[in-house]
């Protein structure tokens, strides 16, 4: 396909995967200014279908065929994008009944959908039992609701156990396991839960272990995967049936900031090959699943805002745009970041410019938090130019407080 | 009225202004469990109309009559609440055309509405000119759009100048002035803008200076107000007409965290009395306006979520609720806070309980960021109990990423 995809394959995920033509970023095969005209207004998120497909295929080619790939919808649940992912993945991971609706509408087979999360509401559990997807049990408190749904609906529930292991994913952006956690059932208590599942007569699907996310170090991921398999083999001894599926979580990180080195997937692929081979004897019949969200979609998306004003205040240049924190909280540095760093930002309509200056990208909000780029060296831009925040395909649109200051919500397009 | 309001008057704003009856928080005169039944589902935000009114009146009684009070809608633009505030305030401050619509629908006179913010879109400027509200100009780039709107609509625009002063509000949670800023026109360049306004023949309304927000130190506020008046008097020399309105901003903070001492408003009131007296000679005919958002509404609101599960993981108690970060970003510590601190949280259905334990309040999201209370000493709660985050009337509902993980949005009620 196009050259950037090759870079992307080589590097795991690269930071700017979009081609440039006549000084403009090309997204979904369309120059940015034309795409903006097609969308009809700014700001908007655009996701590049070609990049999504190429990246998923490239990853698939790297990984051993025995490994199944699931898409964690929470990263980006845009319906058209999910529809595309259904065709590329072996299954979907859901975090709410809202995501389940989108997955079902996209035509995904409920047997390859798994629903995880603490605090599942009773009605969500009923919905999941009715749909026939796998429920990753995170607390024994879910069992009576699943029982009631089974009786009320006359359906045999499909359940797996989400385990809170006794280890964590090292070097991860977010740790979701080890020590006391709201996620999953503590490993040492899993046998009790497995006993309950057996007595209830639910269909036992397997285990789900998600130890953390956003790691750029392959050895940390390999280490967690190995421990995950070992723990699953141990826990399987108390299971009411064979493990059909072992969801090993994800954790594959993407580079956002200067100095971030893209994850090297090759050692992870080799590790998975070895583990899959081992599992043929230690967990016979089990499918090993890797669950990825951000890693599959982050690079394919950009957030596009129009420059309304180039304002110079006491020597500092502010590009005031029609977009900001309310549309892209993570890029403003207010979503779990301790230290604010600049996301990769480009002036998508001046990609060939050589006349650069230090500019801050701000939005229309009445708060100094509304900062998409802090004193970045960028082409000198003018009102009408389009500023793009790259690496915005995951945890962008849905992770942002759209209602803040009552501005219009951004548009989302898949191109 | 009720006792808590008296506490509130005494202390500026107190942290828990709601009465307790039969072990339950009473909001808008209704026990919490009954209110939850009236709302029909959890989670929800509830704002107490009686507290809003009592607090506004108490503040009014403290301040000199010459000072006008404006409500900054950005803090909470819920239409019913804005309607209430219109009846209590002398005017409204708007941050977007979306807020302007709510203000107009609430029956507010456009002549006491002022519209501030960087990056006003051209169509927003047209709307503001058409409505007849005051536009606080933050950049010379707004002038041609206002000119075009004036010509196109045959309306004489009402404009003020938002000034980026050469000082800042000390000890403030957010600094919005001093040094290079996207907000307002640098003080030293204001005379040029005033000249342009005169040549355009726009109606000159006055000045807007907003130096910062969320200060608990009255002397810092007094200092900023004094400097604001001095600067306005100096700038008025170049104005194309008399200053009708001087919006001195706000900055009045509220206590959220243990150790926060409520703002003592009395010295601020005395300072305003002196300044208003001075202004009768230095800015004859000018109305002095104080613009408050958070201070007027924060204490009156609570966010209510239901406990779905009391989960013990490796000795730590997690109250897993149906609400979380997606509904209340600030309480999770992810909205501008450098160090996460616990918002005031109570179990609203167990206010008399003596059996307490260390509990973490979490939500249904698949991220460790989803934390409304970190190891707080709280009554031992069970599924069905209602957890309340106090001090949630400002920057709660609209400042949160409702779409995150595709859960239902919270309800908002004014009781």
Shape of chain A: elongated
Q: How many beta-strand segments of chain A? A: 22
Topology-level CATH name of the largest domain in chain A? TIM Barrel
Mean pLDDT of chain A: 94
CATH uppermost class of the largest domain in chain A: Alpha Beta
Largest interface: A-B, 69 and 70 residues
Helix content, binned percent of chain A: 25-40%
- Which residues of chain A sit in consecutive blocks of at least 5 with pLDDT less than 50? 1-14
- Give the count of structural domains of chain A: 2
Multimer state: homodimer
Biggest sheet descriptor of chain A:
8 strands, mixed
Which structural category fits the helices and strands of chain A? alpha/beta
Give me the number of helical elements of chain A: 11
Corresponding CATH superfamily of the largest domain in chain A: Alanine racemase
CATH level-two architecture of the largest domain in chain A: Alpha-Beta Barrel
Task: Classify the beta-strand content of chain A into a percent band.
Answer: 15-25%
Note the gap between the termini of chain A: 16 Å
Short structural description:
The structure is a homodimer of 415-residue chains. By secondary structure, chain A is an alpha/beta fold.
């Amino acid at each position: 396909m196009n050259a950037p995809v090759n870079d992307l394959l080589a590097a795991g995920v690269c930071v700017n995967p979009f081609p440039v033509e006549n000084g403009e970023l090309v997204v979904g095969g369309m120059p940015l200014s034309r795409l903006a005209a097609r969308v009809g207004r700014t700001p908007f998120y655009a996701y590049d279908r070609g990049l999504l497909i190429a990246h998923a295929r490239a990853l698939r080619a790297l990984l051993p065929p025995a490994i199944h790939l699931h898409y964690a919808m929470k990263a980006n649940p845009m319906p058209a994008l999910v529809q595309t992912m259904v065709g590329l993945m072996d299954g979907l991971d859901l975090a709410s009944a809202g995501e389940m609706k989108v997955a079902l509408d996209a035509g995904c087979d409920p047997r390859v959908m798994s629903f995880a999360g603490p605090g599942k509401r009773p009605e969500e559990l009923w919905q999941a039992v009715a749909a026939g997807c796998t429920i990753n049990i995170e607390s024994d408190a879910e069992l009576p609701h699943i029982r009631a749904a089974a009786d009320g609906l006359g359906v045999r529930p499909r359940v797996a156990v989400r385990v809170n292991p006794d280890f964590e994913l090292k070097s991860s952006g977010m740790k979701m396991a080890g020590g006391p956690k709201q996620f999953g059932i503590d490993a040492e208590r899993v046998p009790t839960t497995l006993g309950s599942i057996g007595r209830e007569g639910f269909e036992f699907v397997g285990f789900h272990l998600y130890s953390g996310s956003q790691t750029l170090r392959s050895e940390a991921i390999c280490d967690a995967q190995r421990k995950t398999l070992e723990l699953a083999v141990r826990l399987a001894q108390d299971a009411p049936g064979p493990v059909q599926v072992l969801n090993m979580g994800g954790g594959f990180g993407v580079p956002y900031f200067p100095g971030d080195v893209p994850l090297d997937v090759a050692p992870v692929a080799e590790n998975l090959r070895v583990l899959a081979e081992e599992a043929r004897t230690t967990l016979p019949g089990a499918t090993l699943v890797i669950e990825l969200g951000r890693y599959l979609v982050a690079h394919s998306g950009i957030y596009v805002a129009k420059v309304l004003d180039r304002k110079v205040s006491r020597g500092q240049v502010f590009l005031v745009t029609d977009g900001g924190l309310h549309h892209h909280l993570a890029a403003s540095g207010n979503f779990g970041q301790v230290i604010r760093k600049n996301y990769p930002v480009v002036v998508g309509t001046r990609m060939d410019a050589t006349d650069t200056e230090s500019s801050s990208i701000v939005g229309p909000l009445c708060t100094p938090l509304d900062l998409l780029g802090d004193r970045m060296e960028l082409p000198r831009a003018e009102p009408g130019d389009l500023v793009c925040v790259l690496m915005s395909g995951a945890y962008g649109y849905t992770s942002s407080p759209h209602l803040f200051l009552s501005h219009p919500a951004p548009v989302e397009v898949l191109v």
